[in-house]
Write a structure and sequence with these properties.
Elements lengths: L1 H7 L8 H40 L1 H24 L1 E2 L3 H11 L2 H21 L1 E16 L4 E16 L2 E2 L3 E13 L5 E8 L3
Helix pairs in contact: 2-3, 4-5
């Protein structure tokens, strides 16, 4: 009987291999699981802190400022390449609202000439930005340089009938200035030769 109990590990003796192996494996698995859990918790804390800092730190402010300048440059590029002879005054008002400094002064100085010329040739141009990028950004100084590639479709009204649209791609460099109400406007617009 004692032999049968010894084989099953039921005796009080600790010499059986089965009795020694199982508790050691369970203890080892418990330690490994605890170590993995601790490493996982550390990873969550580290990456969570980095994620939070990316959304709330100074880098987030720079990214938001860059995005604002790029969105403004894209809209300004469309505004300065879109004009309709039937609503020329409204179009020139949009030009003026997109400009500041020397560009605004030029538009104001030549406004009547632009309007008369457009009404005379009866053209309409619409713009669509293909791509735009900031080449330079100085958030502290409130300045940026943007380059935009714009498809401009132009039609001309001949004897009351609009012509087929002619599309050409224009590349524009815009010098942007942030005005006091935190809005970006163009101080200059220059055609870029390709």
């Amino acid at each position: 009987m004692k032999a049968l109990l010894a084989r099953r590990g039921a005796t009080g003796e600790t010499g059986g291999a089965a009795a020694v192996g199982r508790p050691d494996r369970i203890a080892l698995a418990t330690r490994v699981a605890a170590a993995v859990a601790v490493l996982g918790l550390i990873g969550v804390i580290v990456f969570g802190a980095r994620w939070w800092m990316a959304g709330h730190g100074s880098d987030a402010d720079i990214a938001a400022g860059r995005d604002d300048a790029l969105v403004a440059a894209t809209q300004i590029a469309v505004n300065l390449q879109t004009l309709d002879y039937a609503t020329v005054d409204k179009g020139l008002d949009i030009w003026q609202s997109s400009a500041t400094g020397p560009l605004l002064a030029e538009i104001q100085k030549n406004r009547l000439q632009y309007a008369d010329q457009l009404r005379k040739v009866q053209t309409t141009s619409t713009a669509k930005v293909v791509d735009a990028a900031l080449a330079n950004l100085d958030l502290a100084g409130g300045k940026a340089t943007a380059v935009a590639s714009v498809d401009v479709s132009t039609t001309q009204n001949v004897n009351g009938t609009p012509s087929l649209p002619v599309t050409r791609q224009v590349r524009i460099q815009l010098e942007l200035v942030r005005v006091p109400d935190t809005e970006w406007k163009a101080a200059s617009a220059t055609a870029v030769r390709s």
